[in-house]
């Protein structure tokens, strides 16, 4: 008899887990409380064309230099030919009233070369003990200076995590640098070792022509049993497997399974696990963000893909993408398309504004940042809000995840997946989903 696995959560990690389980011949049921799958990968329409409401791109290469998990999943979904790449336009950072191109010869904004004004003192022991962790700021500030962290490192981290350099785990944010720091006595040595790791040739980033929803929709379409608008309220052991309580509290239904993948954020995962003796989730804070997309009448912008705004500059806007300059396939005659990001961890009060007020704030700040009196009135605009979207990994996060997974292995065929555990990038979430599926398969003896 074919064994059944229920995947809770229809984001990219849950979809990847379901795809892997289906490939292995299991009966797969995917359950999601929303009206559609895809999670934070969602494509909308603005000014007659596609616009990403969430994540816009993925890394093309994996840690080993081969194709990333996102590239492989796109191929499996029949979309290998739909992968497109950004233009050569460079990004900038807003500092002291001007836009400076992001410097080359860096790793996440950290200069590879030592600054004579900030000596990179060698230590007797490696920078990190085996398995140790610290914040990005703790490693970089003493060895490259506050200006490097505040002007370059933190804005780049903020663009990915909406987080702070002095709170984010080095192992989660910069795993190659953390590994190199275990065998290096200076930051310069660690940086050179980290960038010397195998790398692929060709473009660094890619996206799906027509929108990221094409990828999630294609994976969803291959699944035989997708149940949307269904909230999983409880998880309990049932016989040799599991019973999930699904639906409203007044009229609950039950779904029995041999195995379960929880591909949901940390808090709902912890709530479901709490009903199983000996299980608990991973404590994790999240940052909220809002993305403001504007379609302007054809407007001359700096020849950049966009720019970052350090928190020290005092603006609510933390990043801007000039979409039609970064992605040639998004160019529309007579229209200039851009998207601004607002919201940093611990500083979310600007997100309390109404959509109209937030659009007005973004237009005003962009005019100041671009050095113009005002931006033209948009022909179309939209605000996409992502409450509690980006996990904030504090040091030793990997240890907490490892402890959880070791505990899960004492129970039959249950695993967790997603950004809460293994990283926020699209390839990281897909890899997390595949790993969770493999863990469940192992637990089922498949």
UniProtKB/TrEMBL annotation:
Pathway note: Porphyrin-containing compound metabolism; protoheme biosynthesis
UniProt GO BP: heme biosynthetic process
InterPro entries: Amino_oxidase (IPR002937), FAD/NAD-bd_sf (IPR036188), Protoporphyrinogen_oxidase (IPR004572), Zeta_carotene_desat/Oxidored (IPR050464)
Keywords associated with the record: Cytoplasm, FAD, Flavoprotein, Heme biosynthesis, Oxidoreductase
A molecular function GO annotation: oxygen-dependent protoporphyrinogen oxidase activity
Gene3D superfamilies: FAD/NAD(P)-binding domain, protoporphyrinogen ix oxidase, domain 3, Protoporphyrinogen oxidase, mitochondrial, domain 2
Keyword match Flavoprotein: yes
Domain of life: Bacteria
UniProt xrefs under Pfam families: Amino_oxidase (PF01593)
UniProt-annotated location(s): Cytoplasm
EC number: 1.3.3.15
Domain Amine oxidase: 12-441
Family: Belongs to the protoporphyrinogen/coproporphyrinogen oxidase family. Coproporphyrinogen III oxidase subfamily.
Biological role stated in the UniProt entry: Involved in coproporphyrin-dependent heme b biosynthesis. Catalyzes the oxidation of coproporphyrinogen III to coproporphyrin III.
Protein name: Coproporphyrinogen III oxidase
Species per Swiss-Prot/TrEMBL record: Dactylosporangium sucinum
Gene it is expressed from: hemY
């Amino acid at each position: 008899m074919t064994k059944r696995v229920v995947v809770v959560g229809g984001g990219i990690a849950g979809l990847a887990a379901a795809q892997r389980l289906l490939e292995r011949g299991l009966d797969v049921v995917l359950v999601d409380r929303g009206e559609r799958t895809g999670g934070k990968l969602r494509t909308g329409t603005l000014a007659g064309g596609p616009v990403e409401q969430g994540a816009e791109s993925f890394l093309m290469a994996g840690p080993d230099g081969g194709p990333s998990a996102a590239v492989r999943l796109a191929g499996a979904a029949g979309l290998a030919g739909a992968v497109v790449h950004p233009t050569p336009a460079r990004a900038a950072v807003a500092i002291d009233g001007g836009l400076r191109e992001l410097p080359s010869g860096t790793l996440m904004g950290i200069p590879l070369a030592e600054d004579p004004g900030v000596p990179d003192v060698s230590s007797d022991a490696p920078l990190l003990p085996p398995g140790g962790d610290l914040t990005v700021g703790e490693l970089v500030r003493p060895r490259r200076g506050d200006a490097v962290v505040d002007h370059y490192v933190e804005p780049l981290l903020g663009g990915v995590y909406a987080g702070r350099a002095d709170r984010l785990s080095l192992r989660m944010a910069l795993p190659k640098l953390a590994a190199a720091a275990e065998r290096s006595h200076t930051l310069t040595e660690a940086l050179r070792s980290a960038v010397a790791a195998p790398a692929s040739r060709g473009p660094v980033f890619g996206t799906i022509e027509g929108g990221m929803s094409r990828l999630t929709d294609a994976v969803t379409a291959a699944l035989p049993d997708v149940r949307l608008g269904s909230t999983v309220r409880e998880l309990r052991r049932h016989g040799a497997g599991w019973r999930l309580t699904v639906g409203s509290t007044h009229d609950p239904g039950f779904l029995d399974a041999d195995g379960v993948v929880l591909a949901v954020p940390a808090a709902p995962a912890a709530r479901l696990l709490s009903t199983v003796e000996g299980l608990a989730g991973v404590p994790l804070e999240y940052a909220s963000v809002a993305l403001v997309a504007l379609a302007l009448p054809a407007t001359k912008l700096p020849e950049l893909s966009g720019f970052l705004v350090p928190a020290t500059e005092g603006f609510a806007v933390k990043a801007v993408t000039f979409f039609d300059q970064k992605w040639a396939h998004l160019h529309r005659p007579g229209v200039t398309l851009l998207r601004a990001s607002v919201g940093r961890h611990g500083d979310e009060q600007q997100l309390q504004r109404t959509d109209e007020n937030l659009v007005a704030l973004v237009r005003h700040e962009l005019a100041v940042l671009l050095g113009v009196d005002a931006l033209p009135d948009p022909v179309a605009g939209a605000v996409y809000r992502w409450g509690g979207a980006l996990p904030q990994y504090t040091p030793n996060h990997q240890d907490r995840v490892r402890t959880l997974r070791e505990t899960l292995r004492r129970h039959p065929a249950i695993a967790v997946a997603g950004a809460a555990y293994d990283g926020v990038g699209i390839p990281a979430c897909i890899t997390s989903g595949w790993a969770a599926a493999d863990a469940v398969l192992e637990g089922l003896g498949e």
